[in-house]
Design goal:
Layout lengths: L2 H17 L3 E2 H8 L4 H13 L3 E6 L2 E6 L1
Antiparallel strand pairs: 1-3, 2-3
């Protein structure tokens, strides 16, 4: 996995959140069709590092919301 792939997947996550903000990781996997956890978490991490999302623990999942 390279930076270009992570950036592309970050775009998929951002678009999913832009359409329906405040999704759990489980919901994002379904919305983006990203199957591998490490790929999805890399994309979420990219957005978090850029200050575009906030993460919140919700029961047994993580909720991701755009800032």
């Amino acid at each position: 996995m390279n930076n270009e792939t992570i950036g592309t997947n970050a775009g998929l996550v951002w678009n999913a959140l832009n359409a329906n903000n405040g999704q759990t990781v489980k919901e994002l996997k379904k919305a983006t069709k990203i199957k591998a956890d490490k790929v999805l978490f890399s994309a979420i991490g990219w957005l978090a590092r850029e200050g575009k999302v906030v993460l919140e623990d919700v029961e047994d999942d993580v909720k991701v919301t755009l800032l």
